[in-house]
Amino acid sequence: MTEVHLPANSENMTLIEVEQLTRVDSSTQQTVLHSVNLTLKERDRVGLGGPSGSGKSSLLRAIACLDPYQSGSLRFRGETLTPEEIPSYRSRVVYLPQRAVIFEGTVKENLAIPFSLRSSEKIYDEEIAIQQLSHFDRNEGFLRKNADTLSGGEQQIIAWIRCFMMNPNVILFDEPTSGLDSDARSKFEDAVDQWFENPSIDSKAFIWSSHHADQLARLSNRQISMNRGKLEMSLES
């Protein structure tokens, strides 16, 4: 059994609790998560390190309820999720992958997709979209561009803005800046700081996966490391 305790302010609300989470890849029959335990409290900024193939993405995708797990439990704000609650949960706990998920249509249409879903309780706000675009030196006209003509870095920026507009409680960052140049990476990190400090939702936390120790040290207040599907260590920055 692998257990990691993250030191956190006991007064802060627990957002996510993972207990004894085990996942086996159905195609390879390899165990990619071994009895993982993890507690994420509000105001936690957790850096997730480890080599390629260590299970970082598997853990984040399992927490996001995107991949099934064979045993263990996942609770959000103390409650075990029912299947009916998962769509709403995914609007509160958002997974942002290394490569953006982009659909046919304009940038605006891509940004508006989450707000058209039946489970969405929020409304698309174009002013917020334009404000975020300006942070990345893009203007309102960028909304009319076809999303599939954008560079990989621009698509990742759109994925971030879509996530930001949902204003979730938890974001699971899976190496989100690996395809960005240094300037865009800096702007991306600044935008995350702005989201984190936005007072409209107090109960916020994130997990940021990266191969770069300097980035994890810069962004996180706690760090964990993963290897062969196990959490190995917990350090406070």
CATH topology: Rossmann fold
What average pLDDT do the residues reach?
A: 89
Sheet bearing the most strands, described? Answer: 6 strands, mixed
The helix content is 25-40%
Which superfamily, in CATH terms, is the homologous superfamily? P-loop containing nucleotide triphosphate hydrolases
Instruction: Please tell me the CATH architecture by its name.
Output: 3-Layer(aba) Sandwich
Counting helices, strands and paired strands, the structural category is alpha/beta
Question: What's the shape?
Answer: globular
The CATH class designation is Alpha Beta
Order of helices and strands: EEEHEEHEHHHEHEHEE
Q: Rg, please?
A: 17 Å
Distance between the termini: 25 Å
Identify the quaternary structure here.
Answer: single chain
Strand order of the largest sheet: 6-7-8-3-9-10
Explain this structure.
The chain is an alpha/beta fold. It has seven helices and ten strands. It is globular, with a radius of gyration of 17 Å. It has a single domain (14-236), classed as P-loop containing nucleotide triphosphate hydrolases (Rossmann fold), CATH 3.40.50.300. The protein has a six-stranded mixed beta sheet, sandwiched between helices. A four-stranded antiparallel beta sheet has the order 2-1-4-5, with helices on one face.
Keywords:
237 residues, single chain, 7 helices, alpha/beta, four-stranded antiparallel beta sheet, 10 strands, Rossmann fold
